[in-house]
Batch of 2 targets.
Target 1
Amino acid sequence: MDPSPCMDLSSGHAYWREKNGILANYPPLDEDVACDVAILGAGITGALIAEALSADGHEVIVLDGRDVATGSTSASTALLQYEVDTHLIDLIAQYGTDAARTAYLACHDAIDLLEERVVSLGLEACNFTRKDSVYLASRPRDVPVLRKEAEARRQAGIEVHEWSPSEIADHFSFQGHLALHSPQAAEVDAYRLAHGLLAELVRRGGKIFDRTRVTAVEIDAAGLILRTHRGGKVRAKRLVVAMGYETECLFDTAKLVTLHSSFALASEPLEEAPGWWRRCLLWETARPYFYLRGDADGRAIIGGEDLPFRNPAARDHLVPRKTKRLEKRFHDLFPQVRMESAFSWAGTFGETNDGLAYIGSYRKHSLCYFALGFGGNGVIYSVVAAEIIRAALRGKEHPWAVPFRFDR
Ligand SMILES: Cc1cc2nc3c(=O)[nH]c(=O)nc-3n(C[C@H](O)[C@H](O)[C@H](O)COP(=O)(O)OP(=O)(O)OC[C@H]3O[C@@H](n4cnc5c(N)ncnc54)[C@H](O)[C@@H]3O)c2cc1C
């Protein structure tokens, strides 16, 4: 039987939390408080939005039902790519050239924006690192599609290189049909990044309450009231909903997203990685796709093997089997690399039909902004959401807003 959408779907063994421990605790909310903007959810999305809004002078309160950043943020493999799970050519067919290009270019520029923010706030501990990304044609029949995709990206002004089978062999230890090489990509420790942004919020006078679950959101003549399971209330003029895949527990968003389970592992540090060019980000056209990246410790972080969601216990039961399959795939690609798994885990993963995030206002929920950054680009969508919502609170529509609107 499928679980109720509101049972605890949190990741079984969240890598970043295991690796970094709990970096900071905040008090639970036991009294009534008030603010300009309440942010519901202290994952990477809530943290990026909180930092952006506090920089604009808003008085911000962030609430989370768990310890901060221990939802899907702590399970994320955090590849940062402008390449959305849906090809640009397919988005053009669905939404037209302008909207589709805007979606791709927003994600492209969001990588630069995130780097600027990491540097300006001194968040180097999150190990944001520029990387190359390589997208492989999994089957010969994907080659013409990838050629068209490369052309569409170039016409949008994105730098992308087509690598022939011989160029693939020059860079890697495996054979391939065609690959797209993108110099615009990065990797990050999403958990440390979220903690760093939240600490910055507190330095600016913002408040965070964790282990405080919001049970109801009400609207009255003065604004919004958030009720919590501990009895304390938050009164706010505006609400930003950054609850990730649990949004449907309080709002009518269930039809917008399909939940999957995804599996990942982190290896012991690799002294050498022959045949793995620059330890780049690597993914492929098959769906679900296999993907990997390196990290600052020299580990390989490997993921994929997604399954339609059943329940957290069954999902976690599959972790050993899925880990073996991910290990095999890695060894098939890089037979000279001696890779041993150190951590493996599963997490819940939300996907929209078109692969784009939902960001902005939604239906009758006045005074609320939603930031539902689902899919393989979730972290980059969170950066995009912070910009769009910051502009909305300044009374403007951000030029990136259109492809991410709920009524697109
Ligand atoms: C295995 C895996 C691999 C991934 N890999 C990548 C990747 O390589 N690149 C990428 O960009 N993205 C990736 N993603 C997706 C990315 O991790 C997510 O998009 C991102 O973490 C979502 O962040 P969030 O802050 O929106 O959600 P979350 O981190 O889930 O945060 C939501 C928060 O809301 C809180 N909350 C929920 N309900 C309530 C309530 N009622 N009251 C109070 N608090 C509440 C939760 O406790 C939680 O802390 C991956 C995800 C998984 C699971």
Target 2
Amino acid sequence: MQTRKLGKDLTVSAIGLGCMGMSHGYGGQDEAASIKTLHRAVELGVSLFDTADAYGPFTNEELIGKALKPYRDKVVIATKFGFRIDPTKTDAAALVGLDNRPERAREAAEASLKRLGVETIDLFYLHRHDPDVPIEDIVGAMAALVKEGKVRALGLSEASAGVIRRAHAVHPISALQSEYSLWTRDPEGEILDTCRELGIGLVPFSPLGRGFLTGKYRNASDFAEGDLRSSLPRFEADNMAANLALVTLVEEMAEAKGVTAAQMALAWVLAKGDFIVPFPGARKIPNLEQNAAAADVALSAEEVQQLDDMLSPDKIAGARYSAGSAWTPRR
Ligand SMILES: NC(=O)c1ccc[n+]([C@@H]2O[C@H](COP(=O)([O-])OP(=O)(O)OC[C@H]3O[C@@H](n4cnc5c(N)ncnc54)[C@H](OP(=O)(O)O)[C@@H]3O)[C@@H](O)[C@H]2O)c1
């Protein structure tokens, strides 16, 4: 697997693995199956693994720590904090607001270190910035953890360009984790330019549109009860039908090229800059294998342009989050 750099200090596989779905949001799966998938990822050369205290909550970090223990020196473990979490609840119901108090950074890091069973968190992200807390204060507290060796590198998730700049002035930010895919173009322009200029890696989450861009999910009824996607506007029946017509075009283009729609979607993100490292979520080994192979799919400039136009933002039906969702960035 080719590698790419995130900031100055982290070198990771060009395609990472998002681990959220193994314990959160999409129905999870049993631990033994997840461990097999995680071990297969290491075998394939995947070295960036993404989790968060919010996933489960907490159980996803425990899973990652357990599964990756034998491979500690081969992997980069990224985790996140920043939500106020109700430990008595699961999935989205457990996220009851934001907690960006500077002292929370230390508490969260120490708890994550324990759950992961590691001495250092390789990449520690602020999951969502609370605009009521100056970014300088919370990043200052995160920077103190780097000094102490508890954290290796810092990241932000879904931050605006202005917040990225202010944070980077306090301590180098290695990675920005924001949603970016064929159907979510929000980072294009100011955010991509800022990352490129400051040498910050962009780590796009949900690069497969939460699975939709693979063509595998075709109806709202494809999701089991409680699946987080059922609550997202883009997955409402009418929006999904309109968006599916666009995905069908991607499937046709992929078939003509001899790849899958998932691989097309990942190759497109990779083609947007060498500082970009998508990390699709996959519980199932065949999905993981297909995604890892996308690192070798090259798109021509014409193909990238064709995809740009095929799924331009004006054609996408539905917002990515519903108003008032815990995940909606506050800016
Ligand atoms: N910072 C944030 O706020 C934030 C928000 C959301 C997610 N994330 C992170 O981003 C990671 C990735 O995003 P995501 O999991 O939401 O969405 P995604 O990567 O866009 O899609 C994951 C979905 O696609 C399916 N899939 C994966 N590869 C496939 C393939 N080749 N063919 C068919 N289906 C395939 C998966 O199925 P199976 O699981 O069944 O294999 C899963 O249902 C998460 O795991 C999480 O770590 C971060």
